[in-house]
Amino acid sequence: MNAICLVIDRLHVGYVGAYGNAWIGTPALDRLAAEGFAFDAAFIESPELGPLYEAYWLGRHAMGPLAADTSRSLPALLSARSVNTRLLTDDPAVAGHRLAGTFGQIIELNLPEPDAPAQTVEDTLLGRCFAQALELLDSAREPFLVWCHVGALGRAWDAPRALRLANCDAGDPEPPDTVAAPDKMLPANYDPDELLAFSQVYAAQVCVLDACLGVVRDWLTASPIGRETLLVVTSARGFPLGEHLRVGPCDGALHAELVHVPMLFRLPDGLGASDRCGTLVQPSDLAPTLSEWFGVPPEPAGMAKSLLPTFRGESDGVHDRAGILGYGTERAMVTPAWHLRQASSAELYLRPDDRWGANDVADRCPDVVEALAAKLSQYEQTMQSNQITSLEPLDPLLLVGPE
Predict the structure, then answer these.
(1) Which of 1.20.1250, 2.40.50, 3.30.1120, 1.20.58 would CATH assign to domain 329-400?
(2) What is the pLDDT of residues 144-194, one digit of tens each?
(3) What DSSP letter does each residue of 14-61 carry, written as one string?
(4) What is the CATH number of domain 2-312?
(5) Which of 18, 89, 158, 221 is deepest in the core (most CB within 10 A)?
(6) How far apart are the first and last CA of the chain?
(7) For the purposes of burial, counting CB atoms within 10 Å of the CB of 363, is it exposed (0-12), middle (13-18) or buried (19 or more)?
């Protein structure tokens, strides 16, 4: 029994066909979703990789305190049960994380950054990263957990020019040959052609990613080892593309385009195939899920829950709320009906209708803002104290929204 966890940093959920995109083709991602189980409401716990990976590998919410005992991490628990654990990443922040050393092996990629569009998909930075991942899989000894964190999508936009042009309509300006991923705030009177160019080049990068994932799927179906392997595909963070005048990481504002991410599971026995669920899930749920997959008793870690019962149809709900730890004092809370962002002021968006937070209704729903702010404060205090049983249930208004 094996598992691969692919964390594709900066993958915008709105650019995946299985999540509603009809503009570009993502056949491999869509095929993986059709063969697996898709969560429609996966939200990160923090845009900072440090706290986020505490959640991934310890099953503890990012708002909680640091655990002193790193020997209770997911890779450490699996290694103790003779599971071969390997971490491959092109991001020094992940390779240098305090929990990374609990993997049996760390492979840190140090590939040269491109300075021009590649000639082929294989020559792109993403293509070279995935080639290394496939080599790692070919040499894996069962049982294994291979965790791959790929950050190239958010750094280097080196898709071949043919893919850039494929996303242009007649009359559109030709997309630029820019390679460095943008990181800028747009002015209120921004040039729409500039934003269109960013979107076209990013779309080409997603097409490169999709081609790479197609190779991974081919390995799963052709390799005897692959046919015994669980695949998880998710993202550490989205990539804002002008939804709130931000293109790229910018200030890490906790809007949906940053914090709402895809999460797909492809199980080797076909369990949950072509199924999906709108229940709220978060990165910390991966640790108990993978622990159960390998038959290892999970660590009692508060809110985190194994998702395997959902695949089996034994549970139709995981969480009724998702708290998100931002930079500085910024926080957010997502429920089935609302998305509250608390920064210098409160912003409130109706879910799931207002998917990208286009209409702030905070001034029209002050009672909801007040109630959610109180629940968010209680949530963070609960995570800090790890007294999960003290978490009060949500009022119906916070679960179902206005009638």
Answers:
(1) 3.30.1120
(2) 999 999 999 999 999 999 999 988 888 888 888 889 999 999 999 999 999
(3) GG-GGGT--SS--HHHHHHHHHSEEEEEEE-S-SSHHHHHHHHHH---
(4) 3.40.720.10
(5) 158
(6) 47
(7) exposed
